[in-house]
Amino acid sequence: MDLPKRIDAFVKLGDFLGQFSNPNFTKNEDVLYNDLFFDGFKHQIKLAEEHNGWFNTNNIAFAFNSWANALTESNLNQWLSKYDLNTVEPKIVAIIMAGNIPLVGFHDFLSVLISGHQVLVKQSSNDQQLLPFLAKYLEYVEPEFKGRIQFTKDKLENFDAVIATGSDNTARYFEYYFRGKPSIIRKNRNSVAILTGNETTEDFEKLSEDIFRYYGLGCRNVSKLFVPKDYNFDGFFQGMYKWHPIIEQTKYANNYDYNKAVYLMSEFDMLENGFLMIKEDVSYASPIATVFYEYYDGIDQLQQKLKADSHHIQCVVAKDVLPTEIPFGETQNPQLWDYADGVDTIAFLLKI
Fold this sequence. Notes:
single chain, Aldehyde Dehydrogenase, Chain A, domain 2, 12 helices, globular
């Protein structure tokens, strides 16, 4: 199967996902094989929500919208234009996926198939309903994908390379277990925001999306703020207020109450507004419903710290501070060429 066929298949998959890009799913009669797949996918979405309390309709639809926007012919061609994919000798690439946000492993799945390899997927138990159904749709629109996509719940066997995502602890296991195979092993990462005191209300409202989307469970969610000395958080909390309905979600509220009780019992200083707590802490990974903050003395010093800690950081959100910054509100809208951990997945797949 040549590259244009593979690209066309994923463009059609993007068209299919576009129907589910807002919570009011709307059937488009022009989408291929809708009579076979539309109602079935609605059922899978319902199952995903029932299985994982963090996967509500809004967050699932947001993930689908992101992928529908990404899977266009122009985006795919722009992404792949710098690679020579015509000389790939097909190998079997295993993917061990996380399950913290809906379709979190889709970029790896896409990368393996679009580069001409076969994929062997081991999903997280938290996110098993959506991707196998989309794989079936992909096989329908391009039958040559049949036999190139496998899912397993068993021990991974008979593969040539692996892409595995997990915690720092599981990464050590992965590194040992897959030591004889070409691999990408991803560990815990979090995203940070740099505040200067010059932010507007609109900036903070956009930042709230980076913090609260997916309940803060993604590696691209901002979990830590860097602020100048004597920073006034009033404007920050005003910008966060648009997300106050999040406390109505039971799992989130339970985490908020638990973490607040821990902080109070431990006599930690923290600020809170009824649905979000901020606490001074040098760590990067904050608990649900909490954002850590740390003071900085100057941008140059902060840049050195971020460089030294780059292995902990996925994204840096800021406004006119760093050349590599991501604008407020954009962490959950990566481009196809924005690779997790900065590791070029396609380049890896071309070398195995």
